[in-house]
Specification:
The complex is a heterodimer of chains A (about 350) and B (about 600). Chain A is an alpha+beta fold and about 350 residues long. Chain A folds into 2 domains: about 230 residues, Rossmann fold, CATH 3.40.50.300; about 100 residues, OB fold (Dihydrolipoamide Acetyltransferase, E2P) (Beta Barrel). Chain A has 10 helices and 20 strands. In chain A, the strands form 4 sheets. A 6-stranded mixed β-sheet of chain A has the order 6-7-8-3-9-10, sandwiched between helices. In chain A, a hairpin with a 2-residue loop joins strand 4 and strand 5. The relative contact order of chain A is 0.11. In chain B, a hairpin with a 3-residue loop joins strand 3 and strand 4. The longest helix of chain B has about 35 residues. Chain B folds into 2 domains: about 270 residues, MetI-like fold (Orthogonal Bundle), CATH 1.10.3720; about 270 residues, MetI-like (MetI-like fold), CATH 1.10.3720. Classes of the chains: A alpha+beta (about 350), B mainly alpha (about 600).
Chain lengths: ~350, ~600
């Protein structure tokens, strides 16, 4: 039987406040799971209940099919990497890495061998005699990573491990974590509020909001088919329109869009979401063959931002701001600039339609 | 990758420890109960006993004692005297310390480090040192009054007490004001001046208001220290009685324990009040401290710079004169008439005290001589003080570190109660604690009464507050996740403490130990009730020698005490590589 981790109706309440609300999840051995959500959504609380540092109000944490709710943290054999690194400042790099091995009463030779192995894993052999304060943030977090891995934990839990680092190092270390995970085939649970980080690193992403799991799935599915307007907004960027849907027509305050996801003839309140890169941009008068004319709307470019490979246009559409991303090459060819009048085209099949909820931004 | 041989706990098949008895909770619970028990028994119980005695007569509730106190003008005078002396001291000390702190933090005067160090000196000596020095200079046979001016005026009474208390309270008030002033952002001053405010206006409208909590808290602390002090008024007060000396004279002189208890309760009211104000305002003032980097101080104008240098210099000079006078007084033949040097005052009169342990030790090491008699018998109080101080330093620092750890990191249910009890000792005057111990523990079945252990316990409890506060301040700086990291790597509660928490608390531990050592060497007020015919302490001998008219020997004893404290400070500095006094001050 594989060493899987299961959460069953896991709940945490602080008085009347429910931080985590009956969440369920099955994590397979060797899987890389990311908990993604805005701050205060309960993702760290879930992690801390798995580690045992937080008590469980209701529900169960199961490991290998056995409930471990009341098992004390040091008996769970889960490695933890903290946002603040949490290295022992009074110990050198190698003493830090050896700490968990010493606690398990391994013999000195085995410890030395394992420490070498760990140092090589992150290329810090030359730094072994230094103290944490003498290392850069990125190096400290690498030490923290292998310190947690050294005792060969069953599961590695990472609580926003990269948020304290600057952007460049964050991206590099992210790749390193991914490489280690693939190399060691270790079950990892990673908490972050950075959607880009979550999408780029995880096998499966769990999007959390208000203590609940909103969507669980592969990064590509979460991006392409967000299950709610909250997910569409939180993961990536989306434009939103509120309106009433009748069949395949959605009437907003100013426009009437045609959508591919048709509803009933009954008028229902919906939210339309569309990704910036799905919106096409034309110059007025340009031939626009095969387009659904109701979805072609005039606007003016207010702001132009270079993102690198793409260019982001903020377009004023009759007072409504719409974001559209254009590939840099296309942008060059068309010669768009701030103040230009343009036509925006919203392909019907690119609209995601959600029943109107409370969570919309 | 090669999986190393790791001795695995079988995670899941191992027992499901129930919520109630994880080792961590068990240890926390036991330690919590232990501290609660000690503080209730050695802190609350004696104080309650005092209240009981003051309100009860033959088992009945009565206010007779209070009526007796307030209707006897001679005794009641001690109350008004205490209030008068404390208020005057409070005003003088707060104002002088404020400008001293201002000079150190807001001007570019030279020698700030030296000024600061000198200003902390009064902490390393028994409070009596101020009184001894003042008597040598301005007493009946004072160097200045008798010898230089030939006047009959002398300093005994309120004037002497106030000047002595000002010198003693100065560093205590200075710490608070220094912290406050160095924490307030000087850019506010610059902003005010850039908006056209004059320097004086800036001072009144910006600097002073921003330090108001610090000023009030320093004033309250000074009031509390003065009204509870016993050493200075007993030596220099003459006939001018204050509450603390009145308690002692009622008990020792007249055997009126009930009146002593009554005066104790009366003394408790202003001292707890002042302490509570100080405590509340200190929190409030520290909450205003911003962690922002402070910009470079503009060079002060020459007049301001030299004015403040002169001011700080004069204050430091007077502190140095106190120490120099007492040192000198212990080495000269007959102050102030014969200034030829001698060591004879260090051959203390034999006061009947002996500590068998020391006596046996020195007798076995030294050859038979008068020197041996001196060291093994006459120096017994000093050896006892040293032993008590070492034990107090180790026990006090360990206990307060552990108590702080329980309060700050473990937060068990009822943690607030433990915190309140831990902070309380600083509010209770030493004299009251001493009398409380006599009332509560002078019973045949209480076997440690009359031994050095009751003295050790008393000193540890009386100084518990600062130790615990230092420990908490230090532990706050240790990130919670560092401990969690240790636990997640398999460390139990004890290894986590010994391998991670303690090493990170080392500096705080040593500075707390130094503080306890200093207090044990110099404290008078509580332990004066607890010494016995055979167990004497050096700091208390100073008073007895002085009362006996052996002023020079009192000076010599004081010099020995100061020398031991300085020695301990130097040792601590070598051990930790930094000034222990500095560490204590910064965490205050």
């Amino acid at each position: 039987m594989s060493r899987n981790l299961r959460l069953e109706n896991l709940t945490k309440r602080y008085g009347t406040l429910t931080a985590v609300d009956r969440v369920n999840l099955e994590i397979e051995e060797g899987e890389f799971i990311c908990f993604l959500g805005p701050s205060g959504c309960g993702k760290t609380t879930v992690l801390r209940m798995i580690t045992g540092f937080e008590t469980v109000t209701e529900g169960k944490v199961l490991f290998n099919g056995k409930v471990i709710n009341h098992l004390i943290p040091q008996k769970r054999e889960f490695g933890i990497v903290f946002q603040s690194y949490a290295l022992f400042p009074n110990m050198t790099v190698e003493e830090n890495i050896a700490f968990g091995l010493r606690m398990r009463k391994m013999n000195t030779q085995a410890i030395a061998k394992r420490v070498d192995q760990m140092l090589d894993l992150v290329g810090l052999r030359d730094w072994r005699k230094l103290f944490p304060a003498q290392l850069s943030g990125g190096q400290q977090q690498r030490v923290a990573l292998v310190r947690a891995l050294a005792p060969d934990p069953q599961v590695l839990l990472l609580d926003e491990p990269l948020s304290a680092l600057d952007a460049k190092i964050r991206v590099r270390l992210r790749a390193e974590v991914k490489r280690l995970q693939q190399e060691l085939k270790k079950t990892m649970i990673y908490v972050t509020h950075d959607q880009e980080e979550a999408l780029s690193i995880a096998d499966r992403v769990v999007v959390m909001e208000k203590g609940q799991f909103r969507q669980v799935g592969k990064p590509i599915d979460i991006y392409k088919c967000p299950s709610s307007d909250f997910v569409a907004d939180f993961v990536g960027t989306s434009n939103f329109f509120k309106g009433l849907r009748t069949d395949d027509r959605v009437k907003t305050e100013q426009w009437e869009f045609t959508v591919a996801q048709a509803g009933s003839s009954y008028r229902e309140k919906v939210v339309l979401a569309i990704r910036p890169e799905k919106i096409e941009v034309f110059r007025p008068g340009e031939p626009t063959p095969h387009l659904v004319l109701s979805n072609l709307i005039p606007g003016r470019i207010d702001v132009v931002t270079f993102l690198g490979a793409a260019v982001r246009l903020v377009v004023n559409m009759d007072g409504e701001e719409v974001i559209s991303d254009v590939i840099e090459k296309v942008f060059e060819q068309r010669g768009f600039k701030q103040g230009d009048d343009i036509l925006l085209y919203f392909p019907p099949e690119s609209f995601l339609v959600y029943p109107e909820g409370e969570g919309m931004a | 990758m090669n999986r190393p041989e790791i001795d695995r706990f079988s995670t899941v098949s191992s027992s499901f420890l129930s919520r109630a008895i994880t080792p961590d909770r068990l240890i926390t619970g036991v330690a919590f109960a232990f501290f609660l028990a000690i503080l209730v028994f050695f802190l609350l119980y004696p104080v309650v006993d005092i209240c009981r005695l003051s309100f009860l007569k033959e088992g009945k509730l009565t206010f007779e004692n209070y009526v007796a106190y307030f209707s006897s003008p001679r005794i009641f005078r001690s109350f008004t005297n205490s209030i008068y002396v404390s208020i005057v001291t409070m005003i003088i000390t707060t104002v002088t310390a404020f400008f001293f702190a201002y000079g150190l933090t807001r001007t570019t005067i030279p020698g700030k480090g030296i000024f600061y160090t000198i200003s902390t000196l009064p902490l390393i000596a028994p409070t009596i040192i101020q009184a001894l020095a003042l008597i040598l200079l301005f007493g009946r046979n004072g160097l200045i009054t008798r010898y230089l001016l030939g006047t009959d005026w002398n300093i005994y009474g309120a004037t002497g007490i106030i000047i002595g208390e000002c010198l003693y309270c100065f560093p205590n008030a200075l710490f608070i004001l220094y912290t406050t002033l160095s924490a307030v952002d000087t850019r506010m001053d610059e902003a005010a001046q850039s908006l056209g405010a004059s320097a004086l206006k800036t001072f009144y409208k910006v600097t002073l208001p921003s330090a108001k909590y610090g000023i009030a808290s320093a004033a309250a602390l000074t009031f509390n220290l003065t009204i509870t002090d016993f050493g200075i008024p007993v030596v220099i007060g003459g006939n001018y009685s204050v509450l603390a000396t009145e308690i002692v004279s009622q008990v020792f002189g007249l055997q009126r324990f009930d009146l002593g208890a009554t005066i104790s309760v009366i003394l408790l009211v202003p001292s707890i009040g002042a302490f509570a104000i100080n405590y509340y305002l200190t929190r409030k003032s520290y909450a205003l401290i911003s962690g922002q980097a402070r910009p470079f101080l503009q060079p002060s104008r020459p007049l301001k710079k030299w004015g403040f240098t002169l001011y700080c210099g004069l204050i430091c000079l007077s502190i140095l004169i106190v120490f120099a006078t007492v040192f000198l007084g212990s080495f000269v033949k007959t102050w102030p008439y014969d200034f030829s040097l001698t060591l004879k005052h260090f051959d203390f009169p034999s006061l009947g005290a002996h500590a068998p342990l020391w006596t046996n030790f020195w007798t076995s090491v030294l050859p038979e001589s008068t020197f041996r008699t001196m060291i093994s018998y006459k120096y017994a109080p000093i050896w006892t003080s040293l032993l008590v101080s070492i034990v107090v330093a180790i026990a006090g620092a360990s206990l307060t570190l552990l108590a702080g750890y329980i309060i700050e990191k473990k937060k068990p249910k009822g943690e607030q109660v433990l915190y309140t009890l831990s902070v309380l000792p600083a509010a209770i005057p030493g004299v009251v604690m001493g009398l409380g111990y006599v009332l509560a523990f002078n019973k045949p079945y209480f076997f440690i009464y009359g031994t050095i252990w009751i003295i050790i316990i008393n000193i540890v409890i009386c100084n518990f507050t600062l130790g615990v506060l230092t420990s908490i301040a230090n532990l706050k700086q240790i990130d919670k996740s560092v401990e969690e990291a240790a636990v997640s790597l398999g460390a139990g509660p004890i290894s986590t403490f010994t391998r991670v928490v303690f090493p990170l608390s080392r500096v705080a531990f040593f500075s707390t130990a130094t503080f306890f050592f200093m207090r044990a060497m110099t404290t008078i007020s509580a332990v004066i009730f607890l010494i016995s015919a055979t167990i004497k302490l050096a700091a208390i001998e100073i008073i007895f020698l002085d009362v006996d008219g052996r002023t020079a020997s009192a000076n010599a004893m004081c010099t020995v005490v100061v020398a031991i404290v300085i020695g301990a400070l130097l040792v601590m500095r070598l051990v930790t590589g930094r000034s222990a006094l500095g560490g204590m001050v910064s965490s205050r």
